[in-house]
Predict the 3D structure of the following.
Amino acid sequence: MNAHDAGSAGGPPPARSPEYRVAHLQDRLASGELGELGVRIEIRGGAVLVTGTVPSARCREDVLSTVREELTGLEVHCDIVVSEASSPDHAEELS
């Protein structure tokens, strides 16, 4: 058996590159209900950087869950900001 046969004979699938996994994550986010969000994913050095703004804490958790699922084993830094538009609980004082 040569090296080519080892991967197709029931062995583990070849490891997918970080670039492939990031592209798959981007496709998954774009095609789902999270598609309209302004989330950016970049590879910087040996880590993946996920940035952007989402409308609610629930959306942030959904994005983070998807990121963890798709990028398990990679170093990931998330800087996702929640921009919930809630009513202020007090009057703003302008100077």
In short: The radius of gyration is 19 Å.
